[in-house]
Amino acid sequence: MPDQITITRPDDWHLHLRDGAALAAVLPHSARQFARAIVMPNLRPPVVSVEQALAYRQRIVDALPAGPRFEPLMTLYLTDTTSPAEMKRARDAGILAIKLYPAGATTHSDAGVTDLKRVGGVLEAAEREGIALLVHGEVTDPEVDVFDREAVFIERHLIGLRRSFPGLKIVLEHITTKDGAQYVAEGGEKTGATITAHHLLYNRNALFRGGIRPHWYCLPILKRELHRVALVKAATSGSGRFFLGTDSAPHAAALKENACGCAGCYTAFHALELYAEAFDAAGALDRLEAFASVDGAAFYGLPRNAGTLTLEKRTWTVPETLPFGDGELRPLGGGQQLSWAIAAPTDAERSRP
Ligand code: NCD
Ligand code: ZN
After folding, report:
1. Is 247 among the catalytic positions?
2. Catalytic hit among 247, 280, 295, 347
3. What does the pLDDT look like over 165-195, one tens digit per residue?
4. CATH assignment at residue 49
5. How many separate domains does the chain show?
6. Which residues sit with their C-beta closer than 6 Å to ligand 1?
7. Domain that residue 53 falls in
8. Nearest ligand to the C-alpha atom of residue 17
9. What is the tens place of the pLDDT at every residue in 21-74?
10. What is the Cα–Cα distance from 201 to 8, expressed in whole angstroms?
C-alpha cells in the first residue's frame, strides 16, 4: 500500500463559507486544499440576485489568505419569485448554478421553493443558458420519516423534474442513500451527485454513540450502514458522475450543543484527509483523484486544475476546537486520530498558479 499519494489539486463542489468573521475563520481551510469551490448561497438574507452573488464573491476574494489560488464559484438561491431573466444575467456573470432548497428543508431554507410548479419558467431558462440546478433533495412533508425524505423526494419530484428539463444539468447534492446513488447512476450524463466525507465514513449510529452527538447532525441526516456502503460503492465506482462535495457547514459550537441544535458538520478543516480515510478503507485510493479532482470539473465543463496536492500516511489528531469569530467551531471527529495528512507543499507546488 502506498504511504503517499499525489493528486491533481481537488475542487469542492458543495461548500458553505458563510460571511463576515465566520468566512474569515473557515476560508483558509478550504483554500489550503482546494483550487475551486461551489459556494452555497444560503446566507441570511439569501443570495438571490447576480448582483448579490458578485458582491459575495468579492467578499470571499478579499478574505482570502496569501497562498495558492482559490476560486469561488458562485450560485444563486432559487425562490418562488426568481425571474427567468436572471438566468441569462447569471450566465453572463460566470455564475455556474442555481440552488433549489425546498422551503424549510434545512438551515436557512425558509426562502426556498414552496412548489416546483412556480419555478418552471426559471428552470427552462436555466436549461437554455447552461446554468446547472443543484438540488437539496429532501421533501419537507412532516408526515414523511426524516430518514426517508431523500428517497421520497426522488419519487415525488426529481423523476418529474428530470423528465421536464432533459437538457438541464442536475446535481443531486450530498446524496445519503442507496436510492440516491442508484437514481444518479441510471440518470444519464446530465445528472450528477456530490457525496460528503461524513456520509462515506459514518452511519446513523454515530449520532447516538454513548449519548446524543450534535456534531454528527447534518441534513440530510446520516443513514443506515447499508446506505453508507452504497455511497462508498458509488464514489469508488469510476462512474464519473459522483464527485466530491464536502457540504462543510460551520455553526458555532454553542448553536449545535443546544436544545434545538443546528444541522451541519464542519469538515473543511480536514476534508481531503477524511476522504482519503474513506477511500483507503475501501481499498480504492487509486480512485480518489478522479472523484476529487477530475469528474466534477468534467461534469461542469471546466478545465482541470494545474497544481497538485500530496497526502502522506501519518497519524495526527484532529483538534477539538477552532476559532470562529466570537465563538468556537468543533470540527467533525475532533480529538480523533486520522491516518492520512496533507503533506507540506513542495517549492514546485508552491510556485504553481
Ligand atoms: C447546511 C447549512 O448549515 O447551511 N446544513 C447541513 O446540515 N448540511 C445546509 C444544507 O446544505 O443542508
Ligand atoms: Zn449544504
Report:
1. yes
2. 247
3. 999 999 999 999 999 999 999 999 999 999 9
4. 3.20.20.140
5. 1
6. 16, 42, 106-108, 136, 218-219, 247, 249, 263-264
7. 4-351
8. 1
9. 999 999 999 999 999 999 999 999 999 999 999 999 999 999 999 988 999 999
10. 23
